[in-house]
Design a protein that fits this description.
alpha/beta; 10 strands; two-stranded antiparallel ribbon; globular; 8 helices; Spore Coat Polysaccharide Biosynthesis Protein SpsA, Chain A
């Protein structure tokens, strides 16, 4: 039984004003750093769902782009279309999945946090696990294979991932010492805060 991950990286990044997967993150684009974190974790299979800047993301990832990226032609219709495509892609590749990490490109996290969430899913025997920070839900969410049929049918009309988790409330794993689980990068200020929390720079050499 294996652990997989889906990274949703299809949006137009209108609020940020620049493509989020390609944001400077230390000495590399953000999407490259996120892939490295997943590869350093317990995750064995990865799908990166692209859309608005698909060609640029694939180029940024180099040879890994061809291996991990899946293009969603319906990306303008909402995130649920990318989630459903990512799940269907995984199911077509591997029927022995145990769990799937669901991550948005603008919500970076570390490999050790991913591993803690997967370990908690296994320990608690629950449909989903979500980190909690000071009483509020965070990310990423890890779901068990039993939720994959529902996620493969996710639609904006039924609230996508949110709708599935409303029907199957996730188990909360307290991580009050990890504010990164609440980061959602939609502005340059939030981007700067996330870089500080994860100890990375903006790619510019010091003068």
């Amino acid at each position: 039984m294996s652990v997989a991950a889906i990274v949703l990286a299809a949006g137009a990044s209108r609020r940020m004003g620049r493509p989020k997967p390609l944001l400077d993150w230390g000495d590399r684009p953000l999407i490259v750093w996120e892939l490295e974190q997943l590869l350093s974790s317990c995750v064995a299979e990865i799908v990166i769902v692209t859309g608005s800047t698909a060609d640029d993301v694939r180029r940024a990832l180099g040879v890994a782009g061809a291996r991990y990226c899946v293009f969603n032609p319906r990306w303008p219709q909402g995130r649920a279309t990318s989630l459903a495509l990512g799940v269907r892609t995984l199911l077509a590749r591997d029927r022995s999945l145990e769990a799937v990490v669901l991550q948005s490109v603008d919500q970076p996290t570390r490999a050790d946090i991913i591993d803690r969430l997967v370990d908690e899913l296994r320990r608690a025997h629950v449909p989903a696990v979500q980190p909690g920070h000071v009483g509020r839900g965070g990310h990423p969410v890890v779901v068990s294979a039993e939720l994959l049929p529902d996620l493969a049918d996710a639609r904006e009309a039924t609230l996508g991932l949110r709708g599935v988790l409303e029907r199957h409330p996730p188990h909360r794993l307290p991580m009050d010492d990890e504010p990164i689980v609440r980061v959602d990068m939609n502005t340059l200020e939030q981007l700067a805060a996330a870089r500080r929390l994860l100890g990375v720079g903006d790619g510019r050499a010091a003068g």
